[in-house]
Amino acid sequence: xxxxxxxxxxxxxxxxxxxxxxxxxxxxxxxxxxxxxxxxxxxxxxxxxxxxxxxxxxxxxxxxxxxxxxxxxxxxxxxxxxxxxxxxxxxxxxxxxxxxxxxxxxxxxxxxxxxxxxxxxxxxxxxxxxxxxxxxxxxxxxxxxxxxxxxxxxxxxxxxxxxxxxxxxxxxxxxxxxxxxxxxxxxxxxxxxxxxxxxxxxxxxxxxxxxxxxxxxxxxxxxxxxxxxxxxxxxxxxxxxxxxxxxxxxxxxxxxxxxxxxxx
Length: 264
Fold this sequence. Notes:
This protein is an alpha/beta fold. It has helices at residues 9-23, 37-54, 79-85, 90-104, 135-146, 175-182, 189-205, 239-255, 258-262, and strands at residues 27-31, 59-66, 113-117, 129-130, 133-134, 150-154, 211-213. A hairpin with a 2-residue loop joins strand 4 (129-130) and strand 5 (133-134). It is globular, with a radius of gyration of 20 Å. It has a domain at 9-155. InterPro entries: GH. This is Carnosine synthase 1. It comes from Cladocopium goreaui.
Protein backbone atom coordinates (compact mmCIF):
# COMPACT_ATOMS: atom_id res chain seq x y z
CA UNK A 1 0.00 0.00 0.00
CA UNK A 2 1.06 3.58 -0.59
CA UNK A 3 0.40 6.83 1.21
CA UNK A 4 -2.67 8.64 -0.13
CA UNK A 5 -2.47 11.92 -2.06
CA UNK A 6 -3.62 15.15 -0.48
CA UNK A 7 -7.33 14.79 -1.14
CA UNK A 8 -8.91 12.85 1.71
CA UNK A 9 -5.60 11.55 3.03
CA UNK A 10 -6.21 12.35 6.70
CA UNK A 11 -9.61 10.65 6.77
CA UNK A 12 -8.28 7.66 4.84
CA UNK A 13 -5.36 7.25 7.22
CA UNK A 14 -7.68 7.45 10.23
CA UNK A 15 -9.90 4.72 8.83
CA UNK A 16 -6.89 2.61 7.93
CA UNK A 17 -5.49 2.92 11.43
CA UNK A 18 -8.75 1.69 12.94
CA UNK A 19 -8.97 -1.33 10.62
CA UNK A 20 -5.32 -2.29 11.05
CA UNK A 21 -5.37 -2.04 14.84
CA UNK A 22 -8.72 -3.78 15.33
CA UNK A 23 -7.76 -6.65 13.01
CA UNK A 24 -4.18 -6.91 14.27
CA UNK A 25 -2.94 -6.53 10.71
CA UNK A 26 0.56 -5.94 9.40
CA UNK A 27 0.91 -3.96 6.18
CA UNK A 28 3.61 -3.55 3.56
CA UNK A 29 4.04 0.19 3.05
CA UNK A 30 5.33 1.41 -0.31
CA UNK A 31 7.35 4.50 -1.17
CA UNK A 32 7.68 5.78 -4.71
CA UNK A 33 10.85 6.08 -6.76
CA UNK A 34 10.47 8.17 -9.91
CA UNK A 35 12.44 10.57 -12.08
CA UNK A 36 11.39 13.47 -9.83
CA UNK A 37 13.55 13.56 -6.69
CA UNK A 38 11.62 16.42 -5.14
CA UNK A 39 8.34 14.54 -5.45
CA UNK A 40 9.96 11.32 -4.22
CA UNK A 41 11.14 13.11 -1.08
CA UNK A 42 7.72 14.65 -0.54
CA UNK A 43 6.13 11.21 -0.83
CA UNK A 44 8.66 9.82 1.64
CA UNK A 45 7.79 12.47 4.23
CA UNK A 46 4.17 11.33 4.00
CA UNK A 47 5.24 7.70 4.35
CA UNK A 48 7.11 8.52 7.56
CA UNK A 49 3.99 10.19 8.94
CA UNK A 50 1.90 7.13 8.11
CA UNK A 51 4.41 4.78 9.71
CA UNK A 52 4.20 6.69 12.98
CA UNK A 53 0.41 6.50 12.88
CA UNK A 54 0.40 2.74 12.28
CA UNK A 55 3.21 1.86 14.69
CA UNK A 56 6.01 -0.64 14.16
CA UNK A 57 3.92 -3.60 15.33
CA UNK A 58 1.58 -3.13 12.38
CA UNK A 59 4.22 -2.71 9.67
CA UNK A 60 5.38 -5.84 7.85
CA UNK A 61 8.01 -4.04 5.81
CA UNK A 62 8.89 -1.03 3.68
CA UNK A 63 9.01 -1.30 -0.12
CA UNK A 64 11.15 1.32 -1.85
CA UNK A 65 10.08 1.48 -5.49
CA UNK A 66 7.66 -0.68 -7.45
CA UNK A 67 8.53 -2.64 -10.61
CA UNK A 68 11.42 -0.32 -11.38
CA UNK A 69 12.60 -2.69 -14.12
CA UNK A 70 9.65 -1.51 -16.22
CA UNK A 71 10.39 2.20 -15.89
CA UNK A 72 12.39 2.05 -19.12
CA UNK A 73 9.26 1.08 -21.07
CA UNK A 74 6.99 3.85 -19.81
CA UNK A 75 5.96 6.79 -21.94
CA UNK A 76 7.67 10.13 -21.44
CA UNK A 77 10.59 8.63 -19.49
CA UNK A 78 13.88 10.02 -20.75
CA UNK A 79 17.05 8.02 -21.23
CA UNK A 80 18.74 10.51 -18.91
CA UNK A 81 16.37 9.41 -16.15
CA UNK A 82 17.03 5.72 -16.80
CA UNK A 83 20.78 6.29 -16.80
CA UNK A 84 20.60 8.28 -13.56
CA UNK A 85 18.31 5.70 -11.96
CA UNK A 86 20.60 2.71 -12.48
CA UNK A 87 24.13 3.56 -13.63
CA UNK A 88 24.03 6.87 -11.78
CA UNK A 89 22.99 5.14 -8.56
CA UNK A 90 19.87 7.19 -7.78
CA UNK A 91 17.79 4.13 -6.86
CA UNK A 92 20.44 2.73 -4.53
CA UNK A 93 21.09 6.14 -2.99
CA UNK A 94 17.43 6.64 -2.19
CA UNK A 95 17.21 3.15 -0.69
CA UNK A 96 20.12 3.99 1.61
CA UNK A 97 18.64 7.36 2.54
CA UNK A 98 15.26 5.80 3.34
CA UNK A 99 16.92 3.13 5.47
CA UNK A 100 18.83 5.79 7.41
CA UNK A 101 15.59 7.66 8.10
CA UNK A 102 13.97 4.46 9.33
CA UNK A 103 16.92 3.75 11.59
CA UNK A 104 16.35 7.15 13.18
CA UNK A 105 12.60 6.56 13.58
CA UNK A 106 11.79 5.08 16.96
CA UNK A 107 11.19 1.32 16.68
CA UNK A 108 11.79 1.03 12.94
CA UNK A 109 15.49 0.24 12.91
CA UNK A 110 14.79 -3.44 12.27
CA UNK A 111 11.90 -3.14 9.82
CA UNK A 112 12.46 -5.34 6.73
CA UNK A 113 13.40 -3.53 3.53
CA UNK A 114 12.40 -4.55 0.03
CA UNK A 115 11.63 -3.32 -3.46
CA UNK A 116 8.82 -4.91 -5.42
CA UNK A 117 9.64 -6.32 -8.86
CA UNK A 118 7.71 -8.14 -11.57
CA UNK A 119 8.33 -11.26 -13.63
CA UNK A 120 10.46 -9.41 -16.18
CA UNK A 121 13.46 -9.60 -13.84
CA UNK A 122 13.46 -13.41 -14.20
CA UNK A 123 14.63 -13.12 -17.81
CA UNK A 124 18.25 -12.67 -16.69
CA UNK A 125 20.77 -15.10 -15.22
CA UNK A 126 19.86 -15.13 -12.46
CA UNK A 127 18.25 -11.67 -12.82
CA UNK A 128 18.05 -9.09 -15.58
CA UNK A 129 21.03 -6.73 -15.52
CA UNK A 130 20.92 -4.43 -18.53
CA UNK A 131 21.58 -0.68 -18.78
CA UNK A 132 17.83 -0.09 -18.61
CA UNK A 133 17.25 -2.39 -15.62
CA UNK A 134 20.34 -3.15 -13.51
CA UNK A 135 18.32 -5.31 -11.14
CA UNK A 136 20.99 -7.91 -10.38
CA UNK A 137 23.52 -5.20 -9.55
CA UNK A 138 20.91 -3.49 -7.36
CA UNK A 139 20.21 -6.74 -5.48
CA UNK A 140 23.90 -7.38 -4.85
CA UNK A 141 24.40 -3.92 -3.39
CA UNK A 142 21.25 -4.13 -1.27
CA UNK A 143 22.29 -7.50 0.16
CA UNK A 144 25.81 -6.25 0.81
CA UNK A 145 24.49 -3.28 2.76
CA UNK A 146 21.45 -4.74 4.55
CA UNK A 147 22.13 -8.49 4.80
CA UNK A 148 19.18 -10.52 6.04
CA UNK A 149 17.16 -7.35 6.59
CA UNK A 150 16.71 -7.31 2.82
CA UNK A 151 13.65 -9.17 1.50
CA UNK A 152 13.00 -10.21 -2.10
CA UNK A 153 9.49 -9.38 -3.33
CA UNK A 154 7.89 -10.33 -6.64
CA UNK A 155 4.50 -9.60 -8.18
CA UNK A 156 3.01 -12.65 -9.92
CA UNK A 157 0.16 -12.14 -12.39
CA UNK A 158 -0.75 -15.37 -14.22
CA UNK A 159 -3.23 -13.24 -16.18
CA UNK A 160 -0.29 -11.76 -18.10
CA UNK A 161 1.79 -14.95 -18.37
CA UNK A 162 3.49 -15.06 -21.80
CA UNK A 163 2.95 -18.82 -22.09
CA UNK A 164 -0.84 -18.57 -21.96
CA UNK A 165 -2.13 -20.18 -25.16
CA UNK A 166 -5.39 -21.03 -26.86
CA UNK A 167 -6.61 -24.62 -26.63
CA UNK A 168 -5.28 -26.74 -29.52
CA UNK A 169 -7.53 -26.65 -32.55
CA UNK A 170 -9.52 -23.63 -31.35
CA UNK A 171 -9.45 -19.93 -32.11
CA UNK A 172 -11.26 -18.61 -29.05
CA UNK A 173 -11.01 -21.20 -26.24
CA UNK A 174 -8.46 -21.21 -23.40
CA UNK A 175 -9.60 -23.68 -20.73
CA UNK A 176 -6.12 -25.20 -20.30
CA UNK A 177 -4.50 -21.82 -19.68
CA UNK A 178 -7.22 -20.88 -17.21
CA UNK A 179 -6.61 -24.12 -15.31
CA UNK A 180 -2.84 -23.60 -14.95
CA UNK A 181 -3.30 -19.92 -14.14
CA UNK A 182 -5.65 -20.61 -11.24
CA UNK A 183 -4.29 -23.73 -9.55
CA UNK A 184 -1.81 -23.89 -6.67
CA UNK A 185 0.09 -27.14 -7.24
CA UNK A 186 3.30 -28.03 -9.04
CA UNK A 187 3.00 -27.18 -12.71
CA UNK A 188 0.73 -24.22 -12.04
CA UNK A 189 1.74 -20.69 -12.97
CA UNK A 190 1.92 -18.91 -9.64
CA UNK A 191 3.75 -21.54 -7.54
CA UNK A 192 6.12 -22.33 -10.41
CA UNK A 193 6.99 -18.64 -10.79
CA UNK A 194 7.63 -18.30 -7.07
CA UNK A 195 9.75 -21.46 -7.16
CA UNK A 196 11.83 -19.99 -9.99
CA UNK A 197 12.26 -16.76 -8.05
CA UNK A 198 13.39 -18.77 -5.01
CA UNK A 199 15.91 -20.69 -7.12
CA UNK A 200 17.33 -17.47 -8.54
CA UNK A 201 17.62 -15.70 -5.19
CA UNK A 202 19.54 -18.70 -3.86
CA UNK A 203 21.84 -18.58 -6.89
CA UNK A 204 22.52 -14.92 -6.20
CA UNK A 205 22.90 -15.01 -2.43
CA UNK A 206 24.14 -18.55 -1.87
CA UNK A 207 21.58 -19.20 0.86
CA UNK A 208 17.86 -19.07 1.52
CA UNK A 209 16.46 -15.56 1.81
CA UNK A 210 13.07 -14.21 2.79
CA UNK A 211 10.79 -14.02 -0.25
CA UNK A 212 7.42 -12.30 -0.40
CA UNK A 213 4.73 -12.40 -3.07
CA UNK A 214 3.72 -8.77 -3.45
CA UNK A 215 0.68 -8.83 -5.72
CA UNK A 216 -1.39 -11.31 -7.67
CA UNK A 217 -4.85 -11.19 -9.18
CA UNK A 218 -7.11 -11.32 -12.22
CA UNK A 219 -8.87 -8.81 -14.46
CA UNK A 220 -12.40 -8.37 -15.74
CA UNK A 221 -13.11 -6.65 -18.04
CA UNK A 222 -10.08 -7.32 -20.22
CA UNK A 223 -7.05 -5.28 -19.19
CA UNK A 224 -5.92 -2.71 -21.75
CA UNK A 225 -2.36 -4.02 -21.32
CA UNK A 226 -3.25 -7.64 -22.15
CA UNK A 227 -1.60 -8.80 -25.37
CA UNK A 228 -1.23 -12.08 -27.23
CA UNK A 229 -3.55 -15.00 -27.76
CA UNK A 230 -5.68 -14.39 -24.67
CA UNK A 231 -7.17 -11.27 -26.21
CA UNK A 232 -9.04 -13.64 -28.52
CA UNK A 233 -10.53 -15.77 -25.74
CA UNK A 234 -13.73 -14.20 -24.35
CA UNK A 235 -13.76 -16.51 -21.31
CA UNK A 236 -10.31 -15.38 -20.20
CA UNK A 237 -11.35 -11.93 -19.00
CA UNK A 238 -14.97 -12.71 -18.20
CA UNK A 239 -16.62 -11.95 -14.89
CA UNK A 240 -17.02 -15.70 -14.31
CA UNK A 241 -13.26 -16.19 -14.72
CA UNK A 242 -12.57 -13.39 -12.25
CA UNK A 243 -14.91 -15.04 -9.74
CA UNK A 244 -13.43 -18.48 -10.35
CA UNK A 245 -9.85 -17.21 -9.99
CA UNK A 246 -10.71 -15.54 -6.68
CA UNK A 247 -12.51 -18.64 -5.41
CA UNK A 248 -9.53 -20.86 -6.29
CA UNK A 249 -7.12 -18.62 -4.38
CA UNK A 250 -9.37 -18.52 -1.33
CA UNK A 251 -9.91 -22.29 -1.45
CA UNK A 252 -6.18 -22.93 -1.69
CA UNK A 253 -5.53 -20.61 1.23
CA UNK A 254 -8.08 -22.37 3.42
CA UNK A 255 -7.14 -25.93 2.47
CA UNK A 256 -3.36 -25.68 2.65
CA UNK A 257 -1.06 -24.69 5.46
CA UNK A 258 1.17 -21.67 5.13
CA UNK A 259 4.18 -24.01 4.96
CA UNK A 260 2.69 -25.93 2.04
CA UNK A 261 1.94 -22.74 0.16
CA UNK A 262 5.36 -21.22 0.70
CA UNK A 263 7.57 -24.31 0.35
CA UNK A 264 8.75 -23.86 -3.21
